[in-house]
Amino acid sequence: KGLGPNTAQMSERMTRVRGQGFGPPVGGSMIGSVERRTPLAKSSSKSTPIDKKVGINKDTQLLEQGKYFYKRKKYYESVTKLKEFLKNFEYHDLAPEAWLYLGESYLRKEQYGEALRAYKKIYFRYLPYPGAPLALFRMAQCYEKIGNKKAAADSGEKLETQFPKFNLNQFPEFQD
Predict the structure, then answer these.
(1) Does the predicted model carry a pTM greater than 0.85?
(2) Cβ 135 vs Cβ 116: under 8 Å
């Protein structure tokens, strides 16, 4: 009880994710929706411009705040918001995006082990996610930074094999 969605819900979610991206379901059932499986996040005591955006739900507010701080190079604050989002909304359709921003924030803080964990989560759990090639690329970089040359080379080979058209320019928001 309370451990997350059941097998049928996960199957439905994965079908939706693979077939239509990470947006809300088109038609069909709302089984497994965020409102039914996770509590609302507590609102932040600090107010940011993102708090005032119209149409942002409480669940996505934390993600938007994390992205807001990332874009302003406030990586500690970004990590805090993104981790809170993932703690409260582990099965949200936007979780892969949160993991990607979390990995990028850790990378900028030179916390390569933590960044590697975030990128692995994307690659192994959310492979159809469009950010998976970037996660694999960053995995290779993190392995290199921590001195694991073999794992770095293996990740680089996987990247070339699985995503031969990968180009870092596809992800301008994550370039220095």
Answers:
(1) no
(2) no
